């Protein structure tokens, strides 16, 4: 199937502005990494846009270019990064406090990190209860939305950005369901003007981004753009959006293992996941409201992969629990344990234990880079609304209303690569492969 005439990709020329609410562990690890890679001090390990190839045509064709040679993506040298935080620390100070990266590496990228000074944030303590900071905007929600729009305009002008992308790397907000205020753009804007407490800060950033024509990605599990008012705004203005919650650590492991058990029709009786972590994210997640938001995305994954309604004998009685405990000595070096009780032929039980000593922000940083570059590509390809092909990066992928998300990481990867092939008018790869045996 050739689609050459379907997608006209605008070139990736000029500066790409990257605006990030939340200059914490993930953002500073991303930023320091980009600078270190530009200086030739490190390799972009974990990033598809920088390291992965894409197979084109038949297996016998031997065509496997790098993704960044196949589709036009911004170069790291063209990224200009800025953001907002409730704390005044510049990105060097924030990175030093986050303690993800060694001081010796941080010193080498000190200059560019010090240059990133957070703009005043839009913050509501009721949405993130464990932290408070001085670097915040004042006024009604609408006044603060207008101030964000002005921040975006000024950043674009001062840095001469050709295009921009926004990605939420702020703390996880408390669990929050869509209300009447989120149903239409009109009700949402009335809510902003009336300072309706039902509108979360992350939604104010997303509104400001979309009103400014800037694509928006959500790295946390907050509701944010998953409401009719903002979904409609993205579609009406032809702006791509994606989310939610970076797929790293324990859930990444879960989405590798669960499709494997299901593929072999092995049953699961129980899956108990527990985590200890000691960074600021862990502290915020000690609050039951913020934890509930995280728990929802972590729990939904297994249900959607295993489809117990189709396989009641195998997964109908699955007991699934997720715990997160704040444990300061570990800092960003999280430990995630999984105990999985599976059963096989004749119902015989077996156990699997996974102990992942991971580094949260090291796993998340390359996802930030890929999302920024792919979301900008989506916009240059004229794609709008929810970008399901970016599900690969998320624990709770956004989909069109009424559609269940695809969680199997290998199906997600196929979808992502087929989308790139489709953009370039290459044949989609179905893995049927009968032609090799004709
Ligand atoms: N592997 C990972 O690290 C990973 C995976 C999935 C999701 N996430 C999510 O990504 C987000 C960032 O993680 P982190 O480890 O960098 O956390 P962090 O606590 O180090 O950084 C978050 C920053 O956001 C700031 N912030 C909070 N509310 C804000 C607002 N309204 N406006 C501007 N800034 C605000 C905080 O002051 C803090 O500096 C969290 O929501 C986390 O749950 C992280």
Describe the structure concisely.
The chain has 438 residues and is an alpha/beta fold. The chain has helices at 25-38, 48-51, 67-70, 91-98, 103-108, 110-114, 141-158, 185-193, 201-211, 228-236, 249-263, 280-284, 288-306, 312-315, 360-380, 409-423, and strands at residues 15-21, 79-85, 119-120, 161-168, 216-218, 240-243, 267-277, 319-326, 333-343, 349-359, 385-386.
Structure description:
The chain is α/β, with parallel strands linked by helices and 438 residues long. It folds into two domains: 295 residues, Rossmann fold; 108 residues, Dihydrodipicolinate Reductase, domain 2 (2-Layer Sandwich). It has 16 helices and eleven strands. The strands form two sheets. The chain has a seven-stranded parallel beta sheet, with helices on both faces. A four-stranded mixed beta sheet has the order 8-7-9-10. A hairpin with a 5-residue loop joins strand 9 and strand 10. The model has no long low-confidence stretch (mean pLDDT 95). Bound molecules: nicotinamide-adenine-dinucleotide. The site of nicotinamide-adenine-dinucleotide has 36 residues, from helix 1, strand 2, helix 12 and helix 15. Nicotinamide-adenine-dinucleotide binds next to helix 1, strand 2, helix 12 and helix 15.
DSSP strand tally: 11
List bound small molecules: nicotinamide-adenine-dinucleotide
Strand content of the residues, in percent? Answer: 15-25%
Number of H/I helices: 16
- Percent helix: 25-40%
Per CATH, what is the topology of the largest domain?
Rossmann fold
First-to-last CA distance: 20 Å
Main beta-sheet strand count, sense and barrel state: 7 strands, parallel
User: Which architecture name of the largest domain does CATH use?
Assistant: 3-Layer(aba) Sandwich
H and E string: EHHHEHHHEHEHHEHEHEHHHEEEHEH
In the CATH scheme, the class of the largest domain would be Alpha Beta
Determine the structural class based on helices, strands and strand pairing: alpha/beta
